[in-house]
Amino acid sequence: MNKNLDNYNAALRWRYATKSFDPSKKIPQDVLDGLLECLRLTASSFGLQLWKFLIISNPEIRANLLAPSYSQSQVVDASHLIVFCRPKSFDPTMIETFVNQTASTRNQSVESLAPFKEYMDKATQNPSFPTEKWMDNQLYIALGNLLSACALAGVDSCPMEGFSKPKYDEVLGLENDNLTAVVACPIGYRLESDKYASLAKVRYPLEKVVSFLK
Amino acid sequence: MNKNLDNYNAALRWRYATKSFDPSKKIPQDVLDGLLECLRLTASSFGLQLWKFLIISNPEIRANLLAPSYSQSQVVDASHLIVFCRPKSFDPTMIETFVNQTASTRNQSVESLAPFKEYMDKATQNPSFPTEKWMDNQLYIALGNLLSACALAGVDSCPMEGFSKPKYDEVLGLENDNLTAVVACPIGYRLESDKYASLAKVRYPLEKVVSFLK
Questions:
Q1: A128 touches chain B (CB under 8 A)
Q2: A41 burial via Cβ count (<10 Å: 0-12, 13-18, 19+)
Q3: DSSP label at B174?
Q4: Which of A47, B45, B147, B205 is most deeply packed, by most CB within 10 A?
């Protein structure tokens, strides 16, 4: 068995959706930096990175998010609250911006990337293209990535879909920046008293979730 | 900086959306087992695990998926093709099955889990609950997890959203099992000649994708 995978699987077994965070424990800056670098490196459709990650430590803002989070205390107690946002509406200039970034990163001319740009333009302008869902999907890849990164770093996390997105957008003033909240994840360190920490992880046996077509 | 995170970030930098797989290189069984264990451990909403991962090595089936994949050769050339599926339609008995699994894993009575069951029933029966999108979201967490696991194991991958889902469902006979394909990911080993392998990774600087609310 691959040693990295062993280590990774042990981390995934260690993690759980943390219900009670220790409000006194903060994630050290170097660890936070490492987690954000993971987020930045997340894969996305066409590589477009149509996202903004809000890293919220401000106690007042978090207090204002408590009611829209249906009083889930992780929002205020965790070391940091990460809110995964995407553009509220997609705009073809976002492709242009990305093509420019690609050209400068790879020391290529923008012109040489014209076929790539056209390909992305065509795909996203197709009337049946599910633009908003497609942007949301990418944020869930980032969430999966963050959960893994946290587990490897010994940082607790709690993915959260259950919150009022319109109210998050309002409290965070996202509309002005053409952003909207999709999913959230408080991160930090569990309270030793969190009874959920010691419960056995519930997963179906492999036979139920995997089928081999050989 | 956390050593595990350093190692993880190096793996994320190594990975790229592999265009050309070496058809002669197969993932060893122990590594494949490790990757599937990662998938099995993926976090999901309420822990419900509403998914089925198809691990396809059969060459004929894969040849039949080539056209529905718009001729992306990774589908036939990679060591394995993973197709991420979810129930075509959600059924409240899936909550019951999960509650039974929880009871047996944790050595609890099913009755003691009644409030948890009721909570899940209520949430999923809300007329505004986006059942299909919600199930899809979880598969993208699994995809994010798989991409990371592969990178750590030195296995190449190529997340694929661009395929005909109805045709995948048809070729794979998914309807009979109340399943539908959501996203796919060929995994294996890159061809040394894949020119995409050596291109610089294009990511926006941290300032563009992260905002701190302190």
A1: no
A2: buried
A3: -
A4: B147
d(CA B146, CA A145): 9
Structural fold of domain A3-209? NADH Oxidase (3.40.109)
Lookup: tokens for A26: 């903060």
B40 vs A5: CB contact, 8 Å cut-off? no
Both structure tokens of B132: 């299909």
Give the pLDDT of residue B160.
Answer: 98
- Residue ranges for chain B with pLDDT beneath 70: 1
What ranges do the domains of chain A cover? 3-209
- On the question of pLDDT at A96 being above 80, the answer is yes
Min Cα–Cα distance to chain A from B100, Å: 10
Put simply, the chain B residues between 181 and 210 with a CB less than 8 A from any chain A CB are 183, 199-204, 206, 209-210
CA A82 to each of CA A6, A85, A174, A185, B118: distance values in angstroms, whole numbers, following the listed order: 28, 9, 14, 5, 29
Contacts of B122-129 with C-beta under 8 Å, sequence gap 24+, read B123/A162, B123/B46, B124/B90, B124/B92, B124/B95, B125/B92
pLDDT tens, residue by residue, A99-109: 999 999 999 99
Are the beta carbons of A17 and B101 separated by less than 8 Å? Answer: no
HEC profile for A138-195? HHHHHHHHHHHHHHHHCCEECCECCCCHHHHHHHCCCHHHCEEEEEEEEEECECCCCH
3-state SS assignment for residue A205 = coil
Q: Say what the pLDDT of residue B1 is.
A: 67
User: Do residues B69 and B75 lie in contact, with contact meaning Cβ atoms separated by under 8 Å?
Assistant: yes
Is A64 in a helix, a strand, or coil?
Answer: helix
pLDDT tens column, A33-90: 999 999 999 999 999 999 999 999 999 999 999 999 999 999 999 999 999 999 999 9
Contact A34 B1 (CB under 8 A): yes
Structure-token match 């994708």, residue found? B209
- CA B114 to mean position of chain CA atoms: 30
Q: Identify the closest residue of chain A to B6 by CA–CA distance.
A: A34
The whole model's pTM is what? 0.98
- For chain A, count helices (H), then strands (E): 9, 5
Tokens of A118: 């056209």
Residue A140's closest CA among A118, A116, A161? A161
- Chain B hits for A142, CB-CB cut-off 8 Å, are 144
